[in-house]
Amino acid sequence: MAHYYERVNSQETPSQPGGADATGSARSRVSEWLVSRPRAVLVAGAVLVVAALGAGAVAAGASASRGPVASVTAATAEELEPRIVPEVAAAPARARSCVVDASDPAFAELSASVVNVATGEQLYARGGADKPVSALSLHKLMTAAVALHVLGPETRIPTRVYEGSVAGTIVLQAGGDATLSAVPAGAESVYPGAPKLSDLAAQTKASLDRLYPGESGDDDDDGARRSDDGDDTDDAWFWNPFARGDSGPDWEITEVVVDTRLWGASDAWDPAWPAEERTTGTQARIVPLMVDGDRQDATLVTSPRSEDPAGAATAAFVTALDLPSAPRVTQGSAITDRPLLAEVYSQPVSVLVQQMLHLNDHTLADMLARLSSARVGNDGSAASLQQLYESVLSQYGIPASGIVAADGSGLNPASAVAPEYVARLLSVAVSGDATLRYIHLGLPVAGVSGPLLHRFSGDFATVHSVFGGIGAAGESATSLGGLLTAADGTILALSLQSIGDVTSATGLALESFVVAAHACGDNLAAGKAPSGG
After folding, report:
1. At what angle do helices 385-393 and 139-150 cross, to 10 degrees?
2. pTM of the model
3. Which of 180-184, 227-231, 388-392 has the lowest mean pLDDT?
4. What is the pLDDT of residues 424-438, one digit of tens each?
5. Could you give the percent of the chain with pLDDT greater than 70?
6. CA torsion, ordered 479, 485, 491, 496, to nearest 10 deg
7. Number of domains within the chain
8. From its phi and psi, is residue 522 left (phi > 0), alpha (psi between -120 and 50) or beta?
9. Residue 66 DSSP symbol
10. How far out from the chain centre does Cα 169 lie?
11. Alpha-carbon distance 366 to 268, whole Å?
12. Is residue 204 part of a domain?
């Protein structure tokens, strides 16, 4: 624990002329000085006690032959030497004895931090816990905090359809909702409760029906109306540029314009992301329009993604419209003062954050990151994230220096964060900030849900239901972090980040650390770097 000190500085007091006023003034100044310098008074008082005792002894020995001893006066401020006075006495450090053995080579180069959530004390630190290390999926915790702060937990992401300015045209406007779904009504994708393209299409057709109600027949009794020139002309046909006659609907969609201007698509794919993440099915190209996270199979967490998410989403929308003939598809911009035909909304951002963490969803994470950038007026590019993350994360009361935000998912190995920052952010999420509580709620639980359902098996099952966290393994890094209720009831926030010569055994090594920390609880002894490290 750091020791805090305060220097007592000398202060000159101008001399006053004699007399009652001078005496009163002097008393007033001394009184003021006593109030403003309590620590100096304590020191002066100690001096007076020693002086008084010494003077008393001298007086007792010489009283028979000497006159009265002169009275002892209080020392003035200028007579006191400047000195260092402890403000708080150093509390004895608790000797913790439960040691976690992290010497196994499977840990590779381990950087770690374990914090007692209740006290804020960092019980364990290893390998430069305050230095940024490749975060992998732990980076999603940062993205969650940014999205909750910038977008707001109750915000819903819209996808809209406007009437175009040219006859026969509608405009599909992307809003950045990765969960918009093409599954049929009554079915669910990996994002339960997500808005449906079928609903968007049905609203579009219903709005056109209301805007251009059909009227047919040759006489007034059949609903036909005469135009101003007296001809027997159906007003719907006369005024409605969509009209096709009595044999069909009174509107026709000949062109679908797609508006994906929310952010540019020039950096839709990060070159640092392995190509197999798209082909095997964990990451999509990040554009503002897609359905089901661009999954080939909307019901599978891991499913191949396409080369053109916006194109696939538009095709699904056209299919949902069920038009008699296929419209032309072009790129353009919505004119928002044209009639709004349809809109659907995502679930609240608080739910999206929980789904992102629960599924360890790269695509949803990067969509939320880009959307947050666009919301604050940036261009929504990956390059804009660094400044955004530093600015937002510093507002949670934890020094955010050293965070590297190359993307929103952590799939880019350059995305890095200090283990201690991760642990302290988790501490705030569980005990300090109401907005961040959705991070806690979204963490997969060991042996129960999400990617942790089948982890911590065998002897490691002791942490089932008491550890909620997120982790991942890459070619050069492996990470695991979360919130743990230890055997003694202590809630621990921890971040374990291994780099270097990681192997398939590194993930198990990190699991063993969590199990050992569970047994130690608040008795967990501080870590130390391995020999030579």
Report:
1. 80
2. 0.77
3. 227-231
4. 999 999 987 899 999
5. 75
6. -10
7. 3
8. alpha
9. S
10. 40
11. 10
12. yes
